[in-house]
Fold each of these.
Amino acid sequence: MAASDHDPSRPLHLDAKQDADRVVVLTPEDEDRFVRSCAWVVEATKLGISRDVWLRELHGLLSHVRAWAQKHSRLVKRAYATHRDAQVAIYVVPQAGRFDFDLSEKVTELDLEVAEKFQACPCDVLQMPDKPLAELEQLTGNHLAILIYGDGSAAQSQVAP
Amino acid sequence: MATAAQHRAKWLHNRAFLATIDDAFADWMATVMFYTALHAVETLFAHDGTHVHGGHGPRNQTLKTYNRYKQVWKHYRPLFDAARTTRYEADANEWIAVQDVKSRLASDLYRVEASVVKLTNQPLELARLWP
């Protein structure tokens, strides 16, 4: 460490190369003790930054899809977000009540837009039949976590916590 | 890992089966159509030396991320979408009509195949599945 532990005017500098084997002791306000290697601290910091970026992008993605669904409300009845295969899955329920080829072209445009704009948050966008939540969960093999767009009076009240 | 020739053989094998499926099975038509496209895509990946580890998710991300594959993705995505739901959907034949499968969805398959033929620069005569 390059700085005194008790000089608040100077930063504590850990160097991943020079201090790789040094032990860092962190003392939180509850007087607990965390003994970690410098390398661990560096990796944990990277992970924290990655998580922040991912959460920011997820929020942006959901907002983007909601705006898209509002723009195409003539074709879109509802939109859900969940996770599948370690990535986000967006399910769009067509107003048509069946697979809608006109909507499919719009979905492809949306899919490419979000792939380019939210690269830290990969997702696929698919059409989905309008069904009771339990059946949708069975169909997707997952719990539908978020209703992004549409009338949730019937569906949202059933959404699992 | 299968070679481009092996994927191409599977692509043509699935395609031959596709033409034999009865109109009562639009769900299976959509499913086989998707797996025909999938092996066409894998033929392209093998040709390019593009290694994709994992299932549909990583494959889809590769297709939509690289400019070389974006045109393929535009027509592969509807096949993935339609097949995914029809595979698990109880009323699959109500979700997608057989006429739409044989015209509009087939059109997406033809475009995927045409892109793959062009990008691999390997001439391949592919007849239309239905007149």
Note: Helices of chain B lie at 4-18, 26-48, 56-65, 67-88, 92-95, 98-120.
Amino acid sequence: MDARFTALLRPFLKHTGPDDLTLTPDTDLRALGVDSMQAIELLFAVEDTYGITLPDEELNDTTFATAGSLWRVIAAQLPEEAGARPDDGPVSAPGTGADGRATA
Amino acid sequence: MPEHGSAPLDALPPTASGSQVWAALGRAGLIAEVYRDGAAGTGVDPGRLAGLLGAVDARFSLAATLSASVQLATALPLLATGRTPVARQALERALSGRATLALAATDVTAGTDLTALRTEVRLDDDALEVTGEKNWIANTVTAEHFLVLARHRPGRHFTHFTWVLVPADAPGVTVRPADSALFADSGAGHVTFDRVRLGRDHVLGRTGFGLPLFARHIATERLAGAQWAVALCRRVLTDTHRHLAGRAHGDGTLWHLDAVRQRFAACLVRVRELHALVGALAKEVAEHHDTTAAATLKAAAGPTVQHVLTTCGQLWGAAGFATGGIQELRAQAALFGIGGGADEVVLGTLADAAESVLAGLAPPDTAR
């Protein structure tokens, strides 16, 4: 998972509590507050940010289950030179805003 | 809307139905003028939308205005996401007023529980089949096409829904009018789809994009509702002021009573609040599909309309019970708290965004 993805995801995770969250591929998006409305906004944010269209066959609950599952679908749409690897590991996302700048 | 542009509307009687108003708007080219690109593809121009809704509200029934509002704000922009010839042709006919279009989202299940909807679409390689029922849909009895929100997978996940463009004359489509004197002029009704088979080109937009598209385009309907609410309240308050000023009471008129003036002034405050809110948020909704801004507008419009019409209804006294009077209008205007997302739904959306709304209220020098 790249830093841009974690920065994009962070504002959608409403139930992370006061401490910084370390995102891992297993991070459960729904448990952290990504309900239907949030997930819709997240979908638009992903497609706008990366300039990609998620394949129709990947629009399902499995894709939006965890940070890792969503990242794998995004990474598959990115050009190889972007350096994306679907199995990228944990990325700490301390207090980053939607634009990727530190807010703390 | 320019004054000269309202002439086609003035040619219609005040009792014109929603479909008659729509046809007149289309013939005069007034529907296309509402959109920034003239064809619904890039959304509405908020000023032009407010102008047209105000012009329609001033002349026709609330039900007829509802018919136009739903199509202008939501149905046509949603249809414009379609890229197939069948979608293009349907859009062209709707823009010209030659056809009305029904937005069939609300199912037999509760409108506040959209992801529970039962209408389903089975997708094959080159065909599809729609089965289900939609209730209380504006423009149902006049529509040439239905925009049907259907599920292509079981379950509630937001990716399980898809829009389908269904011709009203397709085999298996049955329409019946709703039993409602209040909303007959909107063409309100119920529609059943019994294994309606169509070509795959009737899928509108991307498979699985039903709810994301709905969320984007219902935001514009919520803006339209707030704009219309301002126009309606202004009209009712103007009529009420005229009534009060001409109704003798003691040595003066009802308008000279402090209790009346104060209640009326409280209504002015409410409608000015809503007017200011529309001015502050219209661009965010129209150009950026801001769902929080749209929910704010909708949550403000319903209670404002209710307050103003209830107060004015009281001020009209017994005369308000005349056929076509303010008490009838007040009953119809309860729509503002129900249609396009009930008050409770939009308040829930707003609560979800509490932190960002509060952050946005901070003065610039105390941003932390």
Note: The mean pLDDT of chain B is 94.
